[in-house]
Amino acid sequence: MKQVCCLLLILNFALVLAQSVELFAFPKIVIEGQTRQNFIPSGWTLVDSALGDLNKDHEMDMAFIIKSNDSLTTYTVKEQQGEAFVEVNRKEKYPRRILIVILKQPHKNSYRLINQSNSMIVGQNTKIEIVNHALKIEYNTSMHESTFSISSNYYFSYQNEQLWLSKFDRLSISGEQTEYCVIDFINKKMESTKGKAASAWKKLDTIQLKTMEEFKQPFVWYITEGITI
């Protein structure tokens, strides 16, 4: 339990950085370009990228993560001092990250922006992949010199000009103990397994589909008791 709490503190720290995104002047990504580089603004660098067919048109679409070149970011927050709120400059040593998703337009020999997320990529151990027409975002967290780790995967499917969260799974390992959870948002059901215990699908009738824009960021959506994604 102590290990779980420590990991949650790590995740919460990452979310504190993510929640201050509105205080940081993110660039607005261009709507259309002929190459991936056209979508990377000045002062930003490519971190990770993925190729695959998102909209089932047999063309190679792209998703990629960029980070700010500044290793030290300055932003302003309002802090309460007595009865007044005062603007205070803060600095952090973690570069900002943006997730960009673009679709190939074969007839125009160009790409079109369908998503820019300034808050989905938290921490440095984030990987992306396009598998089975879905964008997979993988977050890996582990404790130094420990056998405890968590791998969380979010799958976004393209439909009606939006990326929708269609599936989530998480694997937690603590020594020889394992916990696995998978949520099917399309069919509104969830399966959770601890160790070798038998599992069964549970209905989630009240759950609503969310776009990436509505989902905003990981680790804050309460699903049911013991499950926050």
Explain what this protein looks like in three dimensions.
With 229 residues, the chain is mostly beta strands. 10% of the residues lie in helices and 51% in strands. The protein is built from two helices and 16 strands. The strands form four sheets. Strands 8-9-10-11-12-13-14 form a seven-stranded antiparallel beta sheet. Strand 4 and strand 5 form a beta hairpin. The radius of gyration is 19 Å and the shape is globular. The two termini are 18 Å apart. Mean pLDDT is 85; it is low at 1-22.
Query: Given the C-alpha coordinates, what overall shape results?
Result: globular
Termini separation comes to 18 Å
Average residue-wise pLDDT = 85
- Could you state the order of secondary-structure elements as H and E? HEEEEEEEEEEEEEEHEE
Proportion of residues in extended strands: over 45%
Low-confidence stretches: 1-22
Structural class: mainly beta
Q: Which features would summarize this protein structure in a list?
A:
mainly beta, 229 residues, five-stranded antiparallel β-sheet, disordered N terminus, 2 helices, globular, seven-stranded antiparallel β-sheet
Outline:
10% of the residues lie in helices and 51% in strands. It has 229 residues and is mainly beta.
Write the layout of secondary structure elements.
Layout: H1 2-19, E1 32-33, E2 44-52, E3 61-68, E4 73-81, E5 84-92, E6 97-105, E7 110-117, E8 126-131, E9 134-142, E10 148-159, E11 162-174, E12 177-184, E13 189-194, E14 201-203, H2 212-215, E15 222-224, E16 227-228
Antiparallel strand pairs: 1-7, 2-3, 3-6, 4-5, 6-7, 8-9, 9-10, 10-11, 11-12, 12-13, 13-14, 15-16
